[in-house]
Amino acid sequence: MHINPFKGLGPVNIGKEFKRAGGTALIIVCLPSWSYGVTVSKPSDYETCYSYVSDCVEKIRAFNIYAYGVIGVHPAELTQMLNRGMEIKKAKELMCAGLDIAVKWIEEGRAIAIGEVGRPHYQVSPEIWEVSNEILLYALGRARDCGCAVQLHTESVGEKEIIELSGMIRKSNLSPCRVIKHFCPPLIKICEREKIFPSLIASRKNVEAAFKEGDRFLLETDYLDDPKRPGAVLGPKSVPKLVNQLRKQEDLKDRLWKVNKELPEKIYGVQFF
């Protein structure tokens, strides 16, 4: 989920809510820079954003929750920069520099993965699409260099898009087993074939559909912590609440353990409860 320490519930309130619902482990993902009130004009501005994630992680850990940060350069940053009048070449250089800083932080143990990176989920010009793919390839290459996982933010995907993304991952020489497709539909068999890990919005409908195809997936809320968008996407309690309900089904206990502990530990290389 995302946490906004300035505009939203913030880490303390979310930590309390998540803990009360039975939550034990949490990945906190970097928001786009403008969500923190940061206007990126130099690489160090991204470091400011990453520091907010790190601070949220520490505050969440105070509740005896296993919390980790994922930091990176959101693909919508490119559109934002261009709308401010920045040249596309400079914008690309700035975003890649932000990714370099993210890698440095990960190597220092201040975060565990790169994300969200990818390409816009909305219609853009062919030039922006091309440059977005170039930045995505750069992010995948940097993840390969430091041996970390990557969370992808992209357009809505089906089999065609999963195959295309898989080709880019192979081109970067990053193991696809370190790649999470955030906000993925329950395309479990297709993702397993391409070795990418799908992360599903944790609705009962999604999870039940996923279990019909397998148990090689992750769960997320994609909570935005934005009071202007209170229904987007799922609340902080959603994953632990749903999992505790599903655990009552004897046939799902081992599969839920795999989804919520074994797989995230393997992908991210950290301990989950």
CATH class: Alpha Beta
Total strand segments: 7
Quote the CATH topology: TIM Barrel
Supply the CATH superfamily name.
Metal-dependent hydrolases
Q: Strand count, sense and closure of the main sheet?
A: 7 strands, parallel
Spatial order of the strands forming the largest sheet:
1-2-3-4-5-6-7
Helix residue percentage: 40-55%
What is the subunit arrangement here? Answer: single chain
Tally of contiguous helical segments: 10
Q: First CA to last CA: what distance?
A: 17 Å
Give the name of the CATH architecture: Alpha-Beta Barrel
Low-confidence stretches: none
Please state the average pLDDT score: 97
Shape: globular
- Gyration radius, in Å: 18 Å
Q: Concise description?
A:
With 273 residues, the protein is α/β, with parallel strands linked by helices. It has helices spanning 10-20, 44-61, 76-83, 88-107, 126-146, 159-172, 188-194, 204-213, 238-246, 253-268, and strands spanning 25-29, 66-71, 113-118, 149-153, 179-181, 197-201, 218-220.
Report on this model:
The chain is α/β, with parallel strands linked by helices. The protein has one domain (10-268): TIM Barrel (Alpha-Beta Barrel), CATH 3.20.20. The protein is 49% helix and 12% strand. The protein has helices at 10-20, 44-61, 76-83, 88-107, 126-146, 159-172, 188-194, 204-213, 238-246, 253-268; strands at residues 25-29, 66-71, 113-118, 149-153, 179-181, 197-201, 218-220. Strands 1-2-3-4-5-6-7 form a seven-stranded parallel sheet. The chain is globular and about 55 Å long. The chain starts with 9 loop residues before the first helix and ends in a 5-residue tail after the last helix. The relative contact order is 0.13.
